[in-house]
Design brief:
single chain
Length: 96
């Protein structure tokens, strides 16, 4: 399967990040291959980001990235950008 910003990967590799429930949802068609690609890419960004394990902080920073960039950039670049938003927020908060 093809994922923008990543390239071609095997569907099994993308499915390896899912729970058994998620794998069943893909097999039954509840999750499309496009959605699977998005889930896989987001998981890769979380793994590469220094704040990826902090769900709410990660989400608060990641949401500022425009959707067209989320689609085009690699997970490495998205992780760096997410971390930059976190650093900007932290620097501004610490200046008070």
């Amino acid at each position: 399967m093809y994922i923008k910003g990543i390239g071609v990967i095997k569907k099994e590799k993308a499915m390896s990040i899912l729970t058994d429930e998620g794998k069943h949802a893909v097999k039954s068609g509840d999750i499309t291959t496009g959605e699977l690609g998005e889930i896989y890419k987001l998981e890769m960004v979380k793994r590469l980001s220094k704040i990826g394990r902090n769900g709410s902080t990660f989400s608060s920073c990641y949401k500022w990235i425009p959707d067209e960039l989320k689609d085009e950039l690699s997970p490495e670049n998205l992780a760096k950008l997410t971390d930059c938003f976190y650093n900007c927020y932290s620097a501004g908060k610490n200046q008070k």
